[in-house]
Hints:
By secondary structure, this protein is an alpha/beta fold. It has three domains: 1-82 and 278-307, NAD(P)-binding Rossmann-like Domain (Rossmann fold, 3-Layer(aba) Sandwich); 84-269, Rossmann fold, CATH 3.40.50; 310-387, Alpha-Beta Plaits (2-Layer Sandwich). The protein is 32% helix and 21% strand. It has helices at 12-15, 66-71, 84-100, 102-110, 119-126, 147-158, 172-177, 188-194, 214-218, 237-246, 278-298, 330-339, 368-376, and strands at 2-6, 23-26, 34-37, 53-56, 75-77, 139-143, 162-166, 183-184, 197-200, 224-228, 249-254, 267-269, 318-325, 345-353, 356-363, 381-386. A seven-stranded parallel sheet has the order 8-7-6-9-10-11-12, with helices on both faces. A five-stranded parallel sheet has the order 2-1-3-4-5. A four-stranded antiparallel sheet has the order 14-15-13-16, covered by helices on one side. α10 (237-246) links the parallel β10 and β11. It starts with a strand and ends with a strand. The model has no long low-confidence stretch (mean pLDDT 96).
Amino acid sequence: MYNIKTYNKISKSGLVEFDAAKYTVGDEVENPVGAVVRSAALHDVEFPESLLAIARAGAGTNNIPCDRCASEGIVVFNTPGANANAVKELVLAGLLLSSRRVVPAIEWAKTLKGNGDDVPKMVEKGKGAFVGPEIRGKKLGVIGLGAIGVLVANAANSLGMQVYGYDPYLSLKSAWNLTHYAHRANDLKEIYENCDYISIHVPLTPDTKGFINADTIKQMKDEVRILNFARAELVNSADMIIALESGKVATYVVDFPTDEMLGINGVIAIPHLGASTPESEDNCATMAAKELVDYIENGNIENSVNLPSISMPRSGDKRICVIHKNIPNMLTAITSAVAENNINIENLLNKSRGDYAYTMLDIDDADYDTIKAKIEAIDGVIRVRII
């Protein structure tokens, strides 16, 4: 039996992917080989030696010590695209809320309570303070054309917006899915100078932290509307507040409220509702469970954030899975350890990602314990499994 530890309440739609004849799942299991997590912080958790992989039921993995996990031979998965439609729908709501001043208008309407038959007249007299533009015909810049960005771009195009997209790392899949009506910007400056609305869909990294700041805002059109459904830290809060106060930015919609942004005129702070739908939670949990099962039972890695994506059909009696440092001659050392036992390698695949690499070898009829011990003795090898 394989033990799977859950750190949060995980959708039952995902948990059914774990065959009850093979897996025991729960938040109290001991010696887990896999873990499923949503938002629980794991940076201070000491992982057991039995743990092979952690699957994040969502896209962001800031709550997981991914580098430490790689050094301990623990694969970290996420579920890109599983919550994409949920986020897309909220971004579309954000576009409309940023334009039509719906939120302050609703709050103002509440103040009319108690005026009886005068309310309709007061509404007609006061509604002019909340006039806002339509989005049809306006230019939307989408920064980051991953699973969410592409859906946003396509939906905005269907609503009559002129879409500018920017992503220097555009994948083939995203390129195929992106509407051909979208204009692919050559650089961010083209987005800043042309777009009335800008929607951010990039991961938070040291390079992207605070990339929306005073200098970049200065390049934008006056009264630009900015939507951030990615991460709060992508935008410099102090610079954004100044831009809002000056009128350079008309509205800032953010799905990651911070203390300094709350109560600021022009800020629409949504309490991280992007992926908060039953459908999204089901999709993320199902995808996370499938990733864990495929890795535990077959050694295949898909959608990892700290090790390479690698998949190979089974062709031998057993499969050797090796997580190791990405250093010269490692593959030679691993294959030599197998060849020394006069074992033929039926199939082999090796891929690397940064400082780490992963090798799979399919073999037949061998003294597996001896081979495993020899590979484990190689300098730079982190974890060896035979499945």
